[in-house]
């Protein structure tokens, strides 16, 4: 059965190739920082399952220190603008196919792989189908692109490294944030924050409870970086006991609009690095918060709308 | 109460613009220590939590493909394609992408998109090329258009996916309510996500129209 472990090793091998590409780049005076940074990450990806957690933790701390000292992009070995223009003129829209094949293979894999069995045994771990499909999509796209451009694996590694260098430490930030979320949960941070909110704000009227709930979902998501982390805490603290229990609200409306209020928070926070900080790095913006700034007006308007919708419709069946 | 100092580290660290990776790792260590865990055990906890979340890094497997295609001129081709389209503007390009991304997300196809696979090689160059037709862009405008492209990818996906009944957030809500003995159909939860989805489309597309107006004014003002 293909499990995530195989995909971790594949991903780790790619990062190891990036590290090697840095190690051999004599033009970069600070190549060892990048080599050690990506090498550490590759080591955790490949061996994380059985490497002592103390060593993984130490490697993460080492990576944070290297990121702070500063990573420098390696030598740019890509093609120049006229070459790319000529290549685009020659290949035309064929260039799009390998890129579009990635999501198509991912979706097809997600739909088909669960049905692929040898005997009674599923070939791909059913719980991991989406991520395995994504990896398949990436490999399929890579094969197609290599054929189309008559290129080789070394060039692919250099080009991948060029992109990861453009992002630098931002590429590992989502994983570090997810780890922080785990530690917050282990330390019981969520419950304390919810208790603070319920103890300090007198929720005597249904409308106040709704406003505290939706804004609380957004705020808590801003702090935790994830609406999924905020939802259980806020719903157990305010949504169920007050909006549903005390004031007789509809749990469906409370949950659906509560979650969407959390999504408004996701648009506003650097803690949701995947959506907000990584794209700023991917698109090479000088302002780290550039994407958040664009999203803010839409997020605030939608939060207001969600709150109004909930206040209007959650109590539509009357008091208990 | 003391365990909240980790949150203080995060807020202060981001506000003072320290390196975010350092801020997050420091917050993790501070939270563990103030929760009364032994220092070495905190490092262990951090290592385990980081290793447990390795699935997040799988998305980077697309980097070599996208890098190769960029080498082959995919961004230039995206620009050429848009340059031939009459009436294309940055705002309109992004509106069309918003519509496609939101509709595919309502069908559960959230992987049809993404900042690395779609926005960087295709959508951002298209929007930039559309805006460039009436003259060169300064760096600030170029980055504003790119930031808008990234925002469209996020907003369209967030307020589309919740209309799909088998998406993670719907399953989470349903499972959580079930723990409290409240049984709801996924369809009901998805239905109440529709008004916000429609409004998200209207609000954000109005803002893209305003973006076009700002870009047009910049041209005529120059």
Keywords:
heterodimer, A: 320 residues, 2 domains, two-stranded antiparallel sheet, 1% strand, globular, B: 222 residues, 11 helices
Relative strand content of chain A: under 5%
Care to count the β-strands of chain B? 0
Give the N-terminus to C-terminus distance of chain B in angstroms. 56 Å
User: Widest sheet of chain A: strand order?
Assistant: 1-2
End-to-end CA span of chain A: 52 Å
This entry's quaternary arrangement is heterodimer
SS field, number of helical segments of chain B:
11
Q: What's the domain count of chain A? A: 2
Shape of chain A: globular
Tell me, rounded to a whole number, the average pLDDT of chain A. Answer: 90
Q: What profile does the largest beta sheet of chain A have?
A: 2 strands, antiparallel
Number of strands of chain A: 2
Q: Which overall shape of chain B is indicated by the principal axes computed on the Cα atoms?
A: globular
Total of DSSP H or I helical runs spanning 4+ residues of chain A: 14
Structural classification of chain B:
mainly alpha
Describe the structure.
The complex is a heterodimer of chains A (320) and B (222). With 320 residues, chain A is an all-alpha fold. Chain A has 14 helices and 2 strands. Chain A has helices at 4-23, 31-47, 53-69, 81-91, 96-112, 129-149, 153-167, 173-187, 189-200, 206-224, 227-246, 251-266, 273-282, 290-313; strands spanning 117-118, 121-122. In chain A, strands 1-2 form a two-stranded antiparallel ribbon. In chain A, helix 2 packs antiparallel against helix 3 (53-69) and helix 10 packs antiparallel against helix 11. Chain A is globular. The termini of chain A are far apart. With 222 residues, chain B is mainly alpha-helical. Chain B has 2 domains: 2-52, no CATH class; 60-221, no CATH class. In chain B, 73% of the residues lie in helices and 0% in strands. The longest helix of chain B has 28 residues, at 194-221. Chain B is globular and about 65 Å long. The N and C termini of chain B lie far apart (56 Å). The mean pLDDT of chain B is 90. Chains A and B meet through helix 1, helix 2, helix 3, helix 4 and helix 5 of A and helix 1, helix 2, helix 3, helix 4 and helix 5 of B.
């Amino acid at each position: 059965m293909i499990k995530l472990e195989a995909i971790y090793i594949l991903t780790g091998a790619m990062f190891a190739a990036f590290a090697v590409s840095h190690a051999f780049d004599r033009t970069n005076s600070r190549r060892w920082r990048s080599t050690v940074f990506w090498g550490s990450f590759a080591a955790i990806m490949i061996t994380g399952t059985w490497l002592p957690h103390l060593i993984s933790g130490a490697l993460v701390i080492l990576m944070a220190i290297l990121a702070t000292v500063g990573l420098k992009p390696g030598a740019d070995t890509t093609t120049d603008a006229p070459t790319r223009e000529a290549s685009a003129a020659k290949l035309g829209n064929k260039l799009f196919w390998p890129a579009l094949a990635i999501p198509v293979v991912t979706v097809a894999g997600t739909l088909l792989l669960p049905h692929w069995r040898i005997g009674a045994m599923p070939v791909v771990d059913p719980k991991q189908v989406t991520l395995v499909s994504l990896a398949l999509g990436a490999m399929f796209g890579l094969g197609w692109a290599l054929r189309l451009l008559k290129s080789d694996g070394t060039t692919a590694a250099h080009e991948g490294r060029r992109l990861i260098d453009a992002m630098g430490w931002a590429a590992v930030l989502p994983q570090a944030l997810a780890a922080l979320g785990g530690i917050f949960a282990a330390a019981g941070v969520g419950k304390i924050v919810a208790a603070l909110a319920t103890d300090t704000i007198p929720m005597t009227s249904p409308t106040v409870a709704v406003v505290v709930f939706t804004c609380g979902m957004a705020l808590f998501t801003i702090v935790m970086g994830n609406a999924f982390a905020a939802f259980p805490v806020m719903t157990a603290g305010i949504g169920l006991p007050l909006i549903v229990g005390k004031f007789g609200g509809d749990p469906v409306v409370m949950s659906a609009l509560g979650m969407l209020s959390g999504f408004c928070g996701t648009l506003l926070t650097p803690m949701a690095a995947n959506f907000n900080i990584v794209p700023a790095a991917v698109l090479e913006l000088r302002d780290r918060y550039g994407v958040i700034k664009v999203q803010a007006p839409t997020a605030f308007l939608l939060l207001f709308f969600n709150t109004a919708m909930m206040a209007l419709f959650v109590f539509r069946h009357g008091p208990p | 109460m003391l365990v909240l100092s980790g949150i203080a580290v995060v807020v202060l660290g981001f506000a003072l613009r320290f390196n975010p990776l350092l801020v997050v790792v420091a917050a993790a260590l501070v939270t563990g220590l103030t929760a009364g865990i032994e220092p070495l055990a905190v490092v262990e906890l951090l290592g385990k939590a980081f290793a447990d979340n390795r699935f997040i890094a799988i998305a980077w497997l697309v980097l070599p493909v996208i890098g190769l295609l960029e080498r082959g001129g995919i961004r230039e081709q995206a620009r050429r394609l848009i340059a031939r389209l009459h009436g294309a503007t940055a705002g309109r390009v992004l509106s069309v992408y918003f519509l496609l991304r939101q509709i595919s997300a309502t069908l559960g196809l959230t992987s049809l998109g993404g900042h690395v696979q779609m926005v960087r090689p295709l959508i951002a160059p298209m929007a930039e090329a559309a805006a460039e037709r009436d003259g060169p862009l300064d760096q600030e405008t170029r980055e504003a258009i790119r930031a808008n492209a990234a925002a469209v990818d996020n907003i369209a996906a967030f307020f589309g996916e919740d209309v799909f009944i088998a998406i993670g957030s719907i399953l989470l809500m349903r499972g959580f309510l079930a723990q409290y003995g409240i049984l709801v159909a996924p369809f009901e939860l998805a239905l109440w996500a529709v008004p916000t989805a429609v409004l998200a489309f209207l609000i954000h597309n109005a803002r893209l129209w305003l973006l076009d107006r700002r870009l047009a004014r910049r041209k005529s003002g120059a």
